[in-house]
Every structure is written in structure tokens, then in C-alpha cells.
Amino acid sequence: MASALLLALLGVFVVSPSLAQGEDLAVEVSIAPVDLDGPVISDIDVTLTNTSGKAVSDIAVEVTGPINWTLYPRVHHIEGELAADESIVLTAEIHAPNDPPSATTRTFRASANYETSPGVRETSTATRQQPSSELVVLTLDEARNNVGTTTLDTVELGDYDGEGHSFSRELLAELGVTPGAALEVGGATFTWPDVEPGQPDNVSSRGQTISFEGGGTKIAVLGSGLGASGVSGEFTVNYTDGTTSTGTVGFGNWFSATPAFDEVVAFAMNGRNTPDGLANTEYRYGIYLSTFDIDPSKTVASVLLPNAPALRVFGMAFIAPVASPTPSESPSVSPSPTDSPSPSESPSPSASPSPSASPSASKSPSVKPTTPPATPTSPRVDKFVPEAPYTKAGTHNINGRQWMTSCESYSQTQRCRTEIWATVVQIENGAFVRTSGWAFNNLTYLPYMTREAWKGNPLGDLGSTQNGHFSSAGRQWRTECDTAATGRGACRSYTMTTVYAATAKPGGGYAFSQSNQWVFNNIVMFGGPEKR
After folding, report:
1. Side by side, which strands form the sheet with 244-251?
2. Which residues pair with 75 in a beta bridge?
3. Together in a domain, 182 and 108
């Protein structure tokens, strides 16, 4: 009973009705807390409530759980109608596997598809994210599990990259980064780990839940990544009211101090410590700052780190709201928010060679550097500033709509994919169906490639098209550049798409139609590597 109570307190329940303005689905779906200690056979209760003014019928409910967990029956078919303002509870039997992961967060989903009027169907969904009773919440100090900084006397204890290398504490001290120091970076105040040399001072992100209480407009993360392309992962923010939000943090490789996502360099130095002492002083090594949005009206209780061991965290801090935000000196070009009925990928720019791997440690005596490393320069005034919802990774709530953007390295630039929570019309089994969920909105190529670098690619080069038109993957495309719609220094591409529409009828229900039309797919923003 105590375990069930704990799960009920920790479980996060999210109802997913349509968020489009003026639209509400007829049925609300909810999932009760689940008692899971495994290996067990337990029940999961799903409640359907008809919140509309008329009955719905032909109801099918699909229930899913974590991978390798069996639910029976998986699909429930309800005979007859669910009258207005009535509720019904369905029970699925859950078979937990032997030796399930203990300290983890499990996700359960329920999806109800039903008919609201002849030929018109809707789908309502619900999600419950539920931590296990064994979940351990740690402070950032308790979670530290890697030695990333060493002195010349303790180099043999460092292993930031799995090869015995580490940041030099002497070089960090020249930048003001010392144990226990308060560091002002990007509007956030961090406390640098106050630990002795050779002791764990950073967190290798492996899905830990970190106690992190407070609030603000953003969470700032100080760290860096491993691997030639860096690493990114999704942070889950748990609020005290039981709700959650997510945001993406990406760090470039610590070698070369070059951002790979939308982060900025916080500290950079020439050289690193190896088992033989300070070496590789001809190269820069960096620690980055990455931020993501949170709900400023709520209080944060904890943060779930991604399962991305190559992502290393030295600190986290809140960024407080400011009275009057300062506009960026170079406003980003962003497309208008228009729903796209179906995901559509764009042709790919040619791939660029991957960054070279970190150099092998050279044998050198344990001596202190004779030349101080250069102090990092201030960011350029024309540096590109990512903005929600199209160019900043994470989940955003703007004008009552929910947006979700993810960004990835792409050729010489980054590409951001934006989705919006909306009700769209699809054809299923020959019938029109209104379904709510994440729908593709557009792709944005960030301004880290020059116009010349886009030559030969029809997304950013009109000379590669026939009067702006071209074909790719059996589809028709159209590109325009430097117009009133794109703004100067940008191109937009559209693809010919079959669009389904639903128009509410005065007597109830919907009239459906379809047409072929040009639908906005992506925007290319010109710039150069100096804008990173």
C-alpha cells in the first residue's frame, strides 16, 4: 500500500486533448496510478469521460506500456454508445518482466478512437509518466561520478574522456574558475564544484534524477561533450505541481572548444592534462553553456538527466526573468507558424567531413606552462541568437500553442525541426479522421553556412532550379530567395502536398475536403561559421 501511495504521489499524468484554439475533443482520457513492483501481475485503469453534449460510439481504446511489459487486452472495444457527460473505466492487465530496471521512469499511454457523427472520427490520448518506488533523487554534489579536472600533481587521477585526460586546474584558475567560486555566465550564477583535486567534480549523464529546487525562465547547464560531433540529450523538468516539461541540451566536444549545437563557449584554454602532465597546448579545450526554457509560473522540484554518458555536467543554475528583454542585434528570420498536414523531409545538403578526433597525448615532462593561455574573446555582436519556437531546441508555449523543436548537426550547419501540437485530418481505412498530436511544422537551417556553400543545392540556390522549381524524391518543389516572405539573406522552399481540411457544420459534425497546394516546408538562413 505504501508503494502504491508513493507511486501515486510521484506519477505525472498528462491529458492530451486538442490544443488548437476553439477545438475540443469529445472524450477525455485519464490513466490512474499504477502499482508496479515487478515481477507482478497488476492492473491499469483507464477512464473515458464524454465531455461533449452528445453521445459517441464505436469506441476502441489502445493501452501501451514500457518496452517488454505486456498489457492484456491491448485494445478494448466498447459496445454501444458513451452518452454525454458519462464515464467508463477500462482495466488492462499488466505483466511486468523479471528483473525490470528499478530506478527509472515508466511511461503508459492510452489512445481512444471513436465516432462523433456518421463518418467522423476523433482520437483522444493520455500519458502517465511514473517513476518507480526505488527512484533515488540526488543532489548534484551526490551525483558527481567523474574526475574532469586535475592539478599537475594529480594528473594520474583524471579521466574526463575515458583516456586519462582532464582539464588543467591551473589553467582554469587563470580564468577565475576555482573550487567554490561563483561564476557569472550568460545571466546565470554557478558555483564551481568545491572538491579536492582528483575527486569527482562532474556528472556523466546516465538518467539520474537531480534535486534542483527553484524557478526562473530558463535552466542553464555548464559542461561539455565527448566525441567528434559532441552530444545532446533531453532534460525533463519535474515541477512541484506534478507536471513536467522538457528541454534539449547539446555540448560540442571539449577538444577544440567549438560549439556543435546552440551552446556558447563559457571557458576555453590551451592544453589539457595527460597522465604525463600538461600537453597539447596548441589546441583549445572548452567548457560550454547551454540553456533551455522552463515555465516561469511554476516551481521546479527536480531534473531528470538524459541517458547520455558522453554529456558531462559541471553545474546547473536558474536564469531569472528580466524586466525588459534586450532585442538581439541580428533578429533571426523565422517562418510564420502554419500547420503542415504531414511530415515532409527536405533534400539534404551534401555532407561535410566529420571533425577530426582528439589528438593522442604526447609524451612531455610534468612542467607548468610558460605562456598563459589566451583569454576567451567576447561574443561577436552579430552572433546568431536562437529564438523560440523555430531555432531554439526544446518545448515552448507561445500564444496558447505548444511547440517542440529539435536541432541536429547537418553538413556545415545545424537543422532544426519544429512540430506543433494540433488537430489534423488524416485518412484511415478510407475515412477522414481528426487526430490530435505533434504535427510537422517546418525545418530551419541555421545561418552557419555562406550563400556560396549552398551552391548546387536547390534549397538555397535558385541557379540549381528551373525558375525556382525542381523535383526531388518524386515530389514537386518550389524555392524563393530574398523576397518579402523570406527576408534578405534567406530562402524558403515549398512542396506540393495533398491537404485535408475539416469544416464544422452548423448542425454538428464536419465537412471534409482535400486539395493539392504548395505547403511551406523549410527555410535556409545564410550566414557563416562566425555566427556560431
Report:
1. 137-138, 209-214, 300-304, 231-239, 244-251
2. 62
3. no
CATH code (residue 6): 2.60.40.10
Q: Does 90 share its domain with 160?
A: no
Query: Distances in Å between the alpha carbon of 248 and those of 125, 159, 220, 262?
Result: 24, 26, 11, 10
- As a whole number of angstroms, the distance between CA 392 and CA 394 comes to 6
- Residue at which a domain ends, from 319, 338, 355: 319
Q: Which pLDDT value is given to residue 40?
A: 63
Among 39, 43, 37, 88, which Cα is nearest to 63's? Answer: 43
Which grid coordinates are listed for 317? 543554475
Q: Are residues 21 and 76 in the same domain?
A: yes
CA separation for the pair 140, 405 (Å, rounded)? 27
**Domain span at 62:** 2-131
Total domains, the chain: 3
Q: How many CB atoms lie within 10 A of CB 469?
A: 12
The answer to whether position 367 is within a domain reads no
Q: Which residues of 252-275 are buried (b: 16+ CB within 10 A; e: fewer)?
A: bbbbbbbbbbbbbbbbbbbbbbbb
Q: Which helix (H) or strand (E) is 43 found in, with range?
A: strand 41-50
**Amino acid, single-letter form, for residue 112:** A
Closest CA to 224 of 316, 177, 287, 289: 287
Across the chain, which distance is largest between two alpha carbons, in Å? 86
Neighbours of 188 (CB within 10 A): 22
Note the pTM of the prediction, 2 decimals: 0.45
How far apart are alpha carbons 37 and 98 in whole angstroms?
A: 10
Separation between Cα atoms, residue 316 and residue 293, nearest integer Å: 13
The rounded average pLDDT for each run of 10 residues, N- to C-terminus, in the chain (532 residues) is: 26 35 71 70 87 92 79 86 93 72 69 91 83 76 96 96 95 96 93 96 93 95 92 91 87 89 93 96 95 94 91 96 46 37 39 39 40 46 84 83 85 90 81 83 93 92 91 87 86 90 78 86 93 88
Q: Are residues 152 and 115 in the same domain?
A: no
Nearest residue to 391 via CA among 216, 524, 494, 485:
524
Choosing from 131, 147, 179, the residue where a domain stops is 131
- Is the residue at 363 inside a domain? no
Residue 112 sits in the same domain as residue 142: no
58 inside domain: yes
> Is 494 a member of any domain?
yes
